[in-house]
Amino acid sequence: MVTALVAATLLVTASVLGPAVAEQTFRGTVASIPPAEHDLRASTAFNADTWPDVDNSVREVVQRHGEIVGELTAAVWTTVSAGHDGDHEDGDRLAFGATGEIDAHAELVDGRWPDPEAEPIEAIVHVDAMTMLGLGVGDRLSVDLFAGATDRVDTVIVGSFQPTEREHALWRGMGHGLQQDQDDSTSVVGPVLVTIDDLVQRIRPGSTTAAWTVNLDLQQVSYDSAPAAIRSLAGLRTGLADVPTGDQATRVSVAGGTDALERARAAAASARAVLLVIVTMVTVLAAWALVFTARILAAGRAPVTALFRARGGTDRLVALLSMLSTVVPAIVVAVAAPLIADLILAALRDRDLVASTSGAGRWLLSVAVATAWLTLLVVADLRSGRSVASVSTEAARPSHRAAVQRAGVDIIVLALGLLALQQLRRPAGETPDTVLIVAPAALVLAGTFVVVRLLPWVSRAASGVAARTRGLPGVLGSFEVARRPLRHVAAVAMLALALAAAVFAASTQATWNVFRDNTVALTEPADVRITMEPTLVIDRPVVATAELLQALPDVDAVMPAHRELARNDTGEVELIGVDPATAGDLMRWPPALAGAPVRDVLAALPSQGDLSAVVTRRYAEELGLDTDSVTVVNVRGTQLRVRVAGVVNAVPGSTEPYAMLVDQAAMRFALREWVEVLEEGADAPELVEVDQAPNQWWLATSGDGGAAAADATSIPGVTSVSTHAEAAQSSSLEVTARGVFAGLTGGLAFAAAFGIVGTILHAVASYRSRAGEHAVLRAVGLRRMSTVSAITVEQILLIGFATIVGLGLGALVSWLTVPHTIGRLAGLPEVPPLELAVPWQIMAALGLGATALLGLIVVVAAASLRTVSITSVLRAGEDA
């Protein structure tokens, strides 16, 4: 019953945890994507005459897909030239427009909202633009609606505002105060807003864009409803693109509405698939355990069943009696499994991994497991005890082939395992996820079937060695295994399967943790990382900035760093510049990713002539580069010749497959610029060649860097501050990581439980079946301790063999599958590379656990022998 209870609890827990982790991962991924990235934006050329019809058509389309739409905002934008108080000489270029829902996306800083139909037309201006233009409430603007216009629109400023959400798609392209054009040659100030009625009916500008921002309400979308939402989003995009504009030359263009739902669903499916790998493996173990326990129980009842048949009992009566004797434990299993699963899931519910454990599905699953167990027991009873003679024959001359061998199942499983291994070796994307999920379980099962065939050979070898010794217990214990190896094969296979599954779960967990730690080390390679706006060294000396940062709380060391994006024939390349003299002591760079001692790698960076760089392995392989090879990259229009000083797995500060680590001073010198500098007392500016100041600074601190990061935000020019400690904490709290960790831990625990229960059950059944033999040995003069020693030798052979096979097979299958399977299923990025982490401590703990299990069995056997009456056992044998 314990085995069935553990199996049912496992499946009920997995049936709740898997979907829960998928749902939480889905919602977490959606929440992490900024709304500006997935909001939909439709636009077309503005026509005052057709605007009402087009606007109504857009709203009708959006209303048809209201299940995913949160808000629709209409706006009209244009770029104008404006002068203050009618003066258009050197006029400013303004972002000018209107939106009907301005008060929903902006708040007043000063003044009031504009009134429609006021004379002159009233406008409000972004508070930053007001400061830049030197305007105030009550001032007037004279606006040219397009270049070369003869008609102007006079507006009066009645208020200033600021957006409530700076990143809202409504403001995209309009900036906040000052918006630089792509070529950095001109700038647009604004925005300046009027009422939409005034813009459409009175101003009627030309060369203007009408835009509708559709805010998607994705928080209400669940993992299960995501496919329908994705189809609705596709229909929304199509419907907006088909809106008639009244002009055959123009159409509505649709942008945004990115694949946020697809990305979130893919992430959720990946997390669920990773859990399914270990669930599949432990489910195979559970099925084996149920069949194994059913056979043991049936074998124990075989003599009674045979006598019942000999006295006229039919198979129908045998099945009925078997069912009646098992139905109560089966009901207990069906009722208790969901309750125990609730206790397990309660801890996960407190950690926000499981929202609810209610539902009829878990009860149906528990009933299904109990029913399957009951059926297995009845079938096993029907197949055993066919006659008294057959029971005696099986005990005296057991079969030389196991049931799975006689049925050819082992050959089929071995073929499936080899096929799974071949599929795992195929390139990424060519193997279905279903195969990746099943492959590890198939390999473990196939490996177990192959290795346990060695048990008879091992037992005979042990018996031969024991026969040459003088100790009788060693001979008796090894002889029992050598005489009846197939009696113990199923138990050995079950323990080996359990240990292999536990090692696989632990290896997956350790590999995932190392990958997570490596990712944090690459993205946040120092205790504190500070990003600064681009400046020239003459404007802000490097030494002065270093002294300013060195004065921050708890700062032990400061290093300038520089990050640039370059291009070559393969695409974008990320250049990370560090100071080789101090980087070794300051930054975090796991040796496995550096591929060599970090100091040796950094020592190769300083050079003369070409810029030296340590490049990623993917970049080197893509371009066929080796040490001392030369490659060319383009950085902001400057061609840089880079000499390859080494090849590494990943570069600190970057998670891109194409990246370089260089000397930041050498890179900045190579990218130096010519600027005009007016010296004090000089009549005219002079061209001076200077380089940029470092755009990043990496700090080492004595604490977690929180105090230094907090104070750094107030330093002029700082655009962002991050710490390694915060990144590590955020990574550990990430829903997918916590869900996978919980699932793998549970898989390890369930595998261990099956191994313990199966081994104890087999030891008890084996001891009871040979009670007569032990009694005879005691009757002829064998001491009780000698009998205990014989049982100890027997269990050492069985448990020791199963432990070695299970741990070795688990490590082998982990090495063959974890880097390939988990990386593909989880959709992990290419950098950092996923490398197998062997959980030596857990493997040692499993070995010690097997030893403790051996000791427990021996202690129980010794206690049982102390209370057994030899006379009663021998008389029972005579009566039988």
Q: Please give the number of β-strands.
A: 22
Mean pLDDT reading:
78
| Helix/sheet category | alpha+beta
What's the N-to-C terminus distance? 28 Å
Across the major sheet, the strand order is 16-17-15-18-14-13-21-12-22
Low-confidence stretches: 86-90, 180-185
Question: How would you describe what is shown here?
Answer:
The chain is an alpha+beta fold and 880 residues long. It is built from 30 helices and 22 strands. A nine-stranded mixed sheet has the order 16-17-15-18-14-13-21-12-22. Strands 2-3-9-5-7-6 form a six-stranded mixed beta barrel. It has a two-stranded antiparallel sheet with strand order 19-20. Helix 9 runs antiparallel to helix 10 and helix 17 runs antiparallel to helix 26 (735-769). The longest helix is centred in the N-terminal third of the chain and has 51 residues, at 260-310. The two termini are 28 Å apart. Mean pLDDT is 78; it is low at 86-90 and 180-185.
Compact description:
56% of the residues lie in helices and 19% in strands.
Helix and strand topology:
Elements: H1 2-32, H2 35-38, E1 40-45, H3 51-64, E2 69-84, E3 87-99, H4 102-105, E4 106-111, E5 121-126, H5 127-133, E6 140-144, E7 152-163, E8 177-180, E9 187-194, H6 196-203, E10 209-216, H7 226-241, E11 253-256, H8 260-310, H9 315-350, H10 360-383, H11 388-396, H12 403-406, H13 409-424, H14 433-451, H15 455-467, H16 472-483, H17 485-523, E12 528-532, H18 542-550, E13 555-568, E14 571-578, H19 580-586, H20 591-594, H21 598-603, E15 611-616, H22 617-623, E16 630-635, E17 638-648, E18 659-663, H23 664-670, E19 673-677, E20 686-690, E21 696-701, H24 706-712, E22 718-723, H25 724-733, H26 735-769, H27 771-779, H28 784-826, H29 840-867, H30 870-879
